[in-house]
Each structure stands twice: as structure tokens, then as C-alpha cells.
Amino acid sequence: MKRVIFTFSLIFTIALSASDGKEVFETYCWGCHHQTAVAFGPPFEEIASKRNASEIKAMITSPKDVSKVFGYSRNAMPSFRLSDDNLTAITNYILSYKKDTNKTKIQKPYPNIALKKEGK
Q1: d(C-alpha 23, C-alpha 105), whole Å
Q2: Per residue in 65-74, pLDDT tens?
Q3: What predicted TM-score, i.e. pTM, was given to this entire model?
Q4: What is the 3-state secondary structure (H, E, C) of the chain?
Q5: Measured between alpha carbons, how far is 101 from 41 in angstroms, rounded to an integer?
Q6: d(C-alpha 47, C-alpha 29), whole Å
Q7: Domains of the chain with bracketed CATH
């Protein structure tokens, strides 16, 4: 029972964080980033597929230094001084757009040629 309550609490906290992250996004990020479309900056889908939480947090708080580490020739992102809660919220919100690349998607199954040959 404790495990179920803990799991629910964790899921609720992550969902709440993502919701708060949307507010942080709308306040600070929306002018240059969009969730899935390219704007002035890359979309969150792209960021989430390339970066982990610590890299995202570092880019938000110190983009000039992180850009040098990543080998970018230029950086237009300003640094932001966010509370730890807001920084975690926006990071979780960005990472919520990560696509699951581990799923194999088969759109149309291959016909079973072996069965058709046996029927001849």
C-alpha cells in the first residue's frame, strides 16, 4: 500500500511540475521556443531528444559557457536566474516532450509469404 501511495505521489509531483513548467515556459521561453515547432530557438522536442536534465539546466542558467562546451560558434540565449523550483519545473516540462525512440512501429504487417506458397 505504501508503494502505491509513493508511486501516486511521485506521478502527481511530476505532473504538477510539468504544469508549473508550462507557466515558466509561457513567462520566459515562449518568445524564442515552441514545444514542437522551430521558432527563433530549437523546439523542446529537439532539446529533449539531445540533452539531459543537467545540460538543460546549465543552458538556462549559463548559456554562454555551455555553448562553448558544446562547440557552438554563437549563442543568442540570455541567461536566466530562476528559483530551483522553477528551474526544475521548466526542465521537466522540456523533457516531457522527449519522443520515445525505443518503440518499434510497424505500420503494415508483412504478408506471410510462406503460408501462401504452401497453399499452391
Answers
A1: 33
A2: 999 999 988 8
A3: 0.67
A4: CHHHHHHHHHHHHHHHHHHHHHHHHHHHHCCCCCCCCCCCCCCHHHHHHHCCHHHHHHHHHCHHHHHHHHCCCCCCCCCCCCCHHHHHHHHHHHHCCCCCCCCCCCCCCCCCHHHHHHCC
A5: 23
A6: 13
A7: 2-99 (1.10.760.10)
